[in-house]
Amino acid sequence: MKKIAFLLVLIIAFMGCKEKKKDLEPAYIMAKWATSTKDLNYRTYKSCKAYPLPNLSFKEKFQNYYYQDVMVLGIGKVDKEDIKKDHMGKKYILKKVFFEGAQYLRSTHKAKTLVRGDVEMRKYIDDDLAKKGWVMSHITIFFKKK
Predict the structure, then answer these.
(1) Cα separation of 118 and 99, whole Å?
(2) Within 10 Å of residue 54's Cβ, how many Cβ atoms?
(3) Which of 31, 65, 87, 126 is deepest in the core (most CB within 10 A)?
(4) In degrees, to the nearest 5, what angle opens at C-alpha 43 toward C-alphas 37 and 48?
(5) What is the chain's percent helix, strand, coil content, to nearest 5?
């Protein structure tokens, strides 16, 4: 009787462990990207992007503002069978990530406006970019009034 109860407990425990894992990688990448804009850290920025801006363009773009408090609101489904090609002919799969955060003025370090948007995350297949894992590609940002 004790063996049956023990087996039953093990079965229930293993069934409970089959819960889907949360995809935390997009939130990590978005936070890294936001921090790189704040710190003007090109190396970190470059690690988050599929095709990053050149260093001088990056510094010029984020010289007056940066992004912080970025939260992932949702993640689209990934279709591993839907393999796409970018402008360089490199193959990747994609997922859409929806987020919100704030744009801060660098001069005051105060939030200027709230933002929402989406970013296309790509995972390259059999290429040098494949080593990077998921990277940001196209980002669309909408500004909201406070």
Answers:
(1) 6
(2) 10
(3) 31
(4) 70
(5) 35, 40, 30
Angle at 31 between CA 25 and CA 35, to 5 degrees: 145
Average pLDDT for residues 99-106, to the nearest whole number? 96
Q: Residue 3: inside a domain, yes or no?
A: no
Query: The domain spanning residue 104 has which CATH number?
Result: 3.10.450
- CA 90/CA 35 separation, integer angstroms: 28
Report the share of the chain in percent with pLDDT over 70. 82
- CA dist 40 and 33 (Å) reads 10
4 in any annotated domain: no
**Domain span including residue 46:** 22-144
Residue 27 has pLDDT above 70, yes or no: yes
**Within a domain: 15:** no
Tokens of 54: 């050149």
